[in-house]
Design a protein that fits this description.
By secondary structure, the chain is α+β, with helices and mostly antiparallel strands. It has 2 domains: 1-47, no CATH class; 48-87, no CATH class. The protein is built from 2 helices and 6 strands; from the N terminus they run βββαβββα. It has helices at 27-40, 72-81, and strands spanning 2-6, 9-16, 19-23, 51-52, 54-59, 66-70. It has a 3-stranded antiparallel sheet with strand order 1-2-3, with helices on one face. A 3-stranded antiparallel sheet has the order 4-5-6. It is elongated and about 65 Å long.
Length: 114
């Protein structure tokens, strides 16, 4: 992650292997910086960010931009990989009305269980 200041505008530049993410509140400065970056480094502009290590969504409500990161795609991939996608969800892994006490634990737990 790098921070670049241009004309009092802060540009955030994140890199992961050969992918870059650029963020700035000033679109004109962001576009100019991106153009100069692509002049120096070989690459392509892939458009507005939608997926980068996580899913990305933007909310432009009330004149401010809020960005949300989500790992829904990754969680679904893991569930599908291990055949849990069609599993029935349960609110709790415990039986209803289970009461736990401080002294109710295995004093010699099996390491593989943990």
């Amino acid at each position: 992650m790098w921070i670049v200041m241009i004309d009092d505008a802060c540009i955030l530049l994140g890199a992961h292997i050969n992918d870059f993410v650029i963020a700035c509140v000033n679109r004109q400065i962001l576009d100019g910086f991106r153009a100069r970056l692509l002049d120096v480094f070989e690459g392509t502009y892939e458009g507005a960010l939608q997926h980068y290590l996580r899913e990305v969504t933007h909310d432009m409500d009330c004149g401010k931009c809020t960005t949300y990161l989500s790992q829904t795609h990754y969680a679904e991939k893991i569930l599908r990989t291990y055949n849990f996608w069609i599993a029935s969800p349960h609110l709790t892994p415990m039986h209803p009305n289970t009461h736990l006490n401080k002294g109710d634990y295995d004093k010699n737990p099996v390491p593989d269980f943990h």
